[in-house]
Amino acid sequence: MKKVSLVYFQHDLRLHDHPGLTASRQRGLPIIGVYLCNQLEMQSTTFGFQKMGNYRQQFLYESLWELKQNLATLNIPLLVLNRDPQSAANLLKTKYDIASIDAAVEPGIEEQNLLKTFQLALGVSSLYLHHDKPLLSPLDYPWLLKTLPGRFTDARMKIESAIKVMPLLPLLTPQPFIEGMEDDFSTLPFFKLQEKPWMKGGETSALEHLQNYFFMTKSVLTYKETRNNMLHFADSSKLSPALSLGLLSPRMIYWQLKRVEETLKKNQSTYWLWFELLWRDYFYYLHLQQGNRFFLITGIMNTKKHWQDNARYQQAILNAKTGFPLVDANLKELYQTGWMSNRGRQNVASFIAKILNLDWRFGAALFEHYLIDYDVSSNYGNWQYLAGVGVDPREDRIFNVTLQAKKYDQKGEYIKTWLPALAKLPVPLLFQPWTLNGLEMGIYQFEIGKDYPNPIVRDARVELKD
């Protein structure tokens, strides 16, 4: 029986800059890779939809397939196992004598429990954990693992006073051939979309996109100016899907960003991308410290609020028929593509949690199901923040979705794209169709309540503080 090291893949589906692969190779034993499907992600939540929806499934499927091929070029077999940890361990023990496990630190309790159960089933005592997901290592910033400042700004300023980012790890060279074994990849239940997805999974596509965004189109140089737009692909970096599965390491993005600043230009846009990477790190370390409090209705601040359990409101969100064009357009895009812009997410989250007063976890679970860039820490951290139960809560922060549409979709192009029923209306009636009088409805052959729903609440129609 062959003695091997096992690299346990989770949200680190790449070859470049991979701490687990690098550390495992340094121990000198042949390596096998294992991806153990989290079967809980296929179960329904209390809100009635499963955790991993079709778009996330396809993105994961494509990424696993490419990782399997790429690892094969290094003579490292990747075994994708869709079974419980005990059954997976029993299968592996028929062929391999596993000496050690390398894995990334995951802040999510489900991921932690899955790895712990798998390790116990294998009977392996040597488990080496690596902080693969964040940009910043706790070796350089020990306080990240202890007590984070309650405000992101304070943490950012502390980090920026002495920036330390680890250099990229070298790519591995092929190891001597080691035989793999039949796995469960061909029987995975992952949904396969017939149409071409707007972003393909896998490390190759992620690296190509990074190169294109930074150096071919140079869109990164206008990131700060365009990031709040919603219509065009290049409006934002679209790096978050790759980060969500670790198709790109955050260190790779950082060092390529430094190359942009050295060879092209250093400006507010390049700084703002760094700023967003720090937000991602902040939620990662906050999640590690707070654990399951990330999922409590009272949030990490133990804030008690009166949340409504309103089936009519929930159904209006699920059908994208709230009567507020900006909200409905963003929901339509989410349901049809698995994507929503940052500006859209803030407006939708504010609408759900602050206007409808629905349990904020309903919205978080909705995003978890659909978004291909879903990341547990960023998703639940941002929802708590916007719902006023997380760090640095801003109780008076309520987005006026009508004013937001006028500001960020001035010509109504985004709304017209996703709500064609409103395309016949001119600006500014497009943003608030409920204001049409009888004469205007006749002129534009449009009837509110028939061609487009009436608003489900009246409160959001007033001029709220933005």
Explain what you see:
The longest helix is centred in the middle third of the chain and has 23 residues, at 268-290. Strand 4 (96-104), helix 4 (109-122) and strand 5 (127-130) form a beta-alpha-beta unit. By secondary structure, the chain is of the alpha/beta class. Helix 3 (85-93) packs parallel to helix 4 (109-122) and helix 12 (325-337) packs across helix 13 (342-355). Helices cover 42% and strands 7% of the residues. It is built from 18 helices and five strands. It folds into three domains: 2-132, Rossmann fold (3-Layer(aba) Sandwich); 133-167 and 206-290, Serine Threonine Protein Phosphatase 5, Tetratricopeptide repeat, CATH 1.25.40; 311-461, Orthogonal Bundle (DNA Cyclobutane Dipyrimidine Photolyase, subunit A, domain 3), CATH 1.10.579.10. A five-stranded parallel β-sheet has the order 3-2-1-4-5, with helices on both faces. The termini are far apart. 43% of the residues are buried.
What is the compact description of this entry?
By secondary structure, the protein is of the alpha/beta class. The chain has helices at 19-26, 54-72, 85-93, 109-122, 152-160, 203-216, 223-226, 240-244, 250-263, 268-290, 311-318, 325-337, 342-355, 360-370, 376-387, 401-408, 413-418, 438-444; strands at 2-9, 31-36, 78-81, 96-104, 127-130. Strands 3-2-1-4-5 form a five-stranded parallel sheet, sandwiched between helices.
